[in-house]
Design a protein that fits this description.
single chain, about 170 residues, mainly beta, 1 helix
Length: about 170
């Protein structure tokens, strides 16, 4: 009888420890949009960097377009959304696009500001849609779209400098 009690107790402890380990080792859900995405056309590369703002739990990001050499090393910057409000370079620009992320969503949508237009800026809406339609699978590619918001537009308003319809590949 003592042997039976010890065996039952040992099995109970074993299963309890295994269940505890399974719950403590389970990683929090990841956001498939966070990371670096790019589209390359010849030696020009358009990149977006997306991160999670832990204060607001929103997705935010910056973009840039660069020239690369044959090894993929950046040679020069064509334009970037990162910059400073002041000449002393102490007050950086806020992120230029943001969106809320709902768990298990394959699309994010939000406002975008293109500050790369000479002497101007243009606001609109961006979307990024995962192409594989599998939330928990590695999101290798996504469709990036940018459009002007509806409404009255000033005459001679420039177009976006940022690409408006691309397929991006996730790097990390």
């Amino acid at each position: 009888m003592k042997t039976l009690i010890k065996t039952v107790l040992a099995i109970t402890i074993l299963f309890s420890c295994t269940a505890f380990k399974a719950t403590t080792n389970s990683a929090p859900p990841t956001n498939p949009f966070v990371g670096t995405w790019q589209h390359q056309n010849g030696n020009e590369v358009f990149k977006i960097n997306i991160w999670l703002n832990t204060d607001s739990n929103d997705i935010e990001g910056h973009f840039k377009k660069v020239i690369v050499d044959s090894d993929g090393n950046e040679i020069s910057v064509i334009y970037t959304s990162e910059g400073f409000y002041d000449t002393e370079q102490t007050v950086p620009y806020y992120s230029v696009f943001s969106a809320s992320y709902t768990q298990n969503s394959n699309t994010i949508v939000g406002p975008i500001m293109d500050r790369t237009i000479p002497n101007d800026k243009l606001e609109g809406t961006f979307s990024l849609t995962l192409q594989n339609n599998c939330i928990n699978c590695p999101p290798n590619t996504a469709i990036w779209k940018v459009k002007k918001d509806q409404g009255l537009r000033p005459l001679g308003e420039p177009d976006f400098n940022v690409p408006t319809d691309l397929i991006l590949t996730k790097l990390e």
